[in-house]
Specification:
By secondary structure, this protein is mainly alpha-helical. It contains 18 helices and 5 strands. It has helices spanning 2-16, 51-64, 70-75, 83-90, 97-107, 109-113, 115-126, 138-151, 161-179, 189-193, 199-204, 207-211, 220-226, 234-258, 269-278, 292-308, 316-320, 334-341, and strands at 19-21, 26-29, 35-37, 77-78, 81-82. The strands form 2 sheets. It has a 3-stranded antiparallel beta sheet. Strands 4-5 form a two-stranded antiparallel sheet. A hairpin with a 5-residue loop joins strand 2 (26-29) and strand 3. The protein starts with a helix and ends with a helix.
């Protein structure tokens, strides 16, 4: 499931860049506005590259292109500020394509790996589980779920401050390493130019935070996403799925805004209301509103989950049979997309 979440995120990212990938029928909108086929077809078949193959190929080519990769920095915003503007403030005239390429390579590694990991996933899915156990621990998994939800607490304008400030630092450090390899962030342009950053960014991230003097350890979800072990663990794959989905949400929100769709004033409200009701997030008699009620439900569920983790359950069954453990709300990750599109 984590792999397919990554795949859908990749499809969404490319769609926002004008590339439509439709399982063998793949097109792009060129700079003249024409729709063109992007992969060659065989003489004996009208089909091009399949979804699994073409998503990684498209993401990889895009991230390596010096011009196209900059769209990543334009489309992702932190507190309304595009990443490109933030990087340009600190490193005027020089933004390394490695900053984007490194992220896509790290978070897209499961899409890239191909047959080896696919065989591992198929073994996990279809072979006897007793012979091929997954490395899973109940206490670790429950902690991950609780921490991951905290990272997606809404903070307005489709943002997630708890997560976005660490992602911003991750990107700044990658840029710093490209310009000053082997030196600590505290010795480079970040502290020198910190005062020129937008006030909203300085309000979100202190200078000490951006150079690693405080909260030096990265979020667990980012550490898992950056890990490249083979085969990938379930939590690593879930983390990469969440990072790619966060990217896809940012792209989508910016694209809608640039197309004149104002999500904050309810331009998508009818569609979102219907979707939320179908998924059981709200009832017909309880309007969705600005989506904040969806997080209120999760906040209560997180409190219940936190109490159910203490003391650490002996096994999964012990936790599942506990009263008020946060189920089923903590399984409803689609809520994140809904409250993101309400902002």
């Amino acid at each position: 499931m984590a792999y397919y979440a990554q795949l859908r995120a990749g499809l969404c990212i490319m769609a926002n860049l004008g590339v439509g990938l439709f399982n063998g029928i793949n097109f792009a909108v060129d700079n003249a506005g024409a729709i063109v086929r992007i992969d060659p077809t065989k003489k004996t078949s009208r089909r091009g590259m399949g979804t699994h193959e073409v998503v990684w190929s498209a993401l990889d080519d895009w991230s390596k292109n010096p011009v196209l990769s900059q769209s990543f920095l334009d489309l992702i915003k932190v507190r309304h500020a595009p990443l490109r503007d933030i990087l340009e403030t600190i490193w005027p005239g020089f933004i390394s394509t490695a900053t984007v390429g490194g992220l896509i390579n790290a978070w897209g590694i499961d899409l890239k790996r191909g047959q080896t990991d696919r065989n591992f996933r198929n073994t996990s899915s279809y072979a006897p589980h007793a012979l091929n156990p997954l490395p899973m621990r109940t206490a670790t998994n429950l902690r991950f779920v609780q921490r991951a939800w905290r990272m997606f607490e809404p903070s307005g304008s489709a943002g997630f401050d708890n997560l976005d400030r660490f992602l911003l630092r991750r990107i700044l450090w990658a840029q710093h390493e490209a310009t000053n390899p082997g030196t600590p962030p505290s010795a480079g342009s970040i502290p020198a130019q910190y005062g020129n950053l937008p006030a909203t960014i300085r309000g979100l991230c202190s200078q000490d935070f951006l150079v690693g003097n405080t909260e030096a350890t990265n979020l667990e979800i980012i550490r898992y996403a950056d890990a490249g072990t083979t085969p990938a663990t379930p939590l690593q794959m879930l983390s990469r799925a969440l990072m790619l989905l966060r990217t896809a949400m940012a792209f989508t929100h910016t694209s809608l805004s640039e197309a004149g769709v104002n999500t904050a004033t309810g331009d998508l409200q009818v569609w979102l209301e219907n979707y939320a009701q179908l998924r059981g997030f709200c009832s017909a008699t309880t309007p969705l509103g600005d989506g904040s009620g969806l997080w209120d439900d999760i906040r209560v569920a997180m409190d219940d989950l936190g109490r159910s983790r203490l003391p650490a359950p002996a096994d999964l069954m012990s936790w599942k049979t506990a009263n008020n453990n946060g189920m089923p709300l903590i399984t409803e990750a689609e809520r994140i997309a809904v409250w993101s599109l309400c902002a």
